[in-house]
Write a structure and sequence with these properties.
Blueprint (H helix, E strand, L loop, with lengths): L1 E9 L16 H13 L6 E2 L8 E11 L5 H11 L4 E9 L11 E9 L13 E2 L6 H9 L3 E4 L20 E12 L2 E8 L6 H14 L6 H8 L14 E7 L1
Parallel strand pairs: 3-10, 5-6
Antiparallel strand pairs: 1-3, 1-4, 2-3, 5-9, 5-10, 7-8, 8-9
Helix pairs in contact: 1-2, 3-4
């Protein structure tokens, strides 16, 4: 058996997220079907993490084991021939047997794009969050710096309504290595790099930073929200359309 690392990009607006779900179109299921068609082997590729419905990826990573001897570069071509245009395999590499897309990951980078112009071009509408209203961008930049370092991010994690905790997470402690906003023409872009991210964590951070931008919160309030360790202390979840998984580091 050969263990493969597959790097892929996708337009998340056409999928109900990464993880396979009954009767829903997902990226994981779409990739699995393409792998079976090309190799003749049934498998479920494991991703570096779950992206939600509507969230995009520039370089998601998946791993799987196959017996088929097809060379990696030929596999890239064959998979892209059968995958929908909304999913592209960027690279396939043969890796050591102990490599696992999720368990071996050491850091991830996400980006969130807010379009600040009065009129959002229609060809961008699915890939940004359109917010043309007044925002204190300097305050948002200051607030973003408050989440750097190791923290318990319970206040920014999606809550399981039945269990009252974030799903599939033994600990909500994560380390954020960098957290910053930047102006890029008509877009205000948030980029965050961390050891890992909880369910909805980046979108909840952005939603909270937006409250700072609107004046409902101050940058100094962020430390109190972190200390509360309660999802109700944080801001709303920002829309999925503006979020991208940029890269995964191993």
């Amino acid at each position: 058996m050969r263990n493969l690392k597959i790097t892929l990009a996708y337009d998340g607006s056409e999928f109900s997220g990464w993880q396979v779900q009954p009767d829903r179109r997902t990226v994981q299921a779409t990739l699995a079907a393409a792998l079976e068609r090309v190799t003749g082997e049934r498998m479920m590729p494991q991703g570096s993490g779950r992206t939600d419905a509507g969230v995009h990826a520039l370089a998601q990573v998946a791993s799987c084991s196959i017996a088929n001897p097809i060379p990696p570069q030929n596999l890239v071509i064959a998979l892209n021939d059968v995958l929908p245009p909304s999913v592209r395999v960027i690279c396939v590499e043969e890796v050591t047997p102990d490599f696992h897309a999720r368990k071996s990951a050491r850091a991830k980078t996400y980006r969130y794009r807010i379009y600040r112009g009065d009129i959002c071009p229609p060809f961008l509408a699915r890939y940004v969050y359109h917010h043309p209203y007044p925002l204190d961008e300097a305050a948002m930049a200051a607030a973003a710096r408050e989440v750097m370092g190791e923290h318990d991010f319970t206040s920014f994690a999606a809550v399981d309504p039945e269990k009252g905790t974030e799903p599939d997470e033994a600990s909500a402690v994560r380390t954020v290595f960098s957290s910053q906003w930047s102006r890029e023409a008509e877009e205000f872009v948030y980029t965050v790099r961390g050891s890992g991210f909880l369910h909805h964590m980046v979108r909840n951070l952005v939603g909270t930073f937006l409250l700072v931008g609107k004046g409902s919160l101050t940058p100094a309030d962020i430390s109190g929200i972190l200390a509360a360790r309660n999802r109700s202390a944080g801001g709303p979840t920002a829309p999925a359309s503006g979020l991208y998984l940029v890269s995964v580091e191993y």
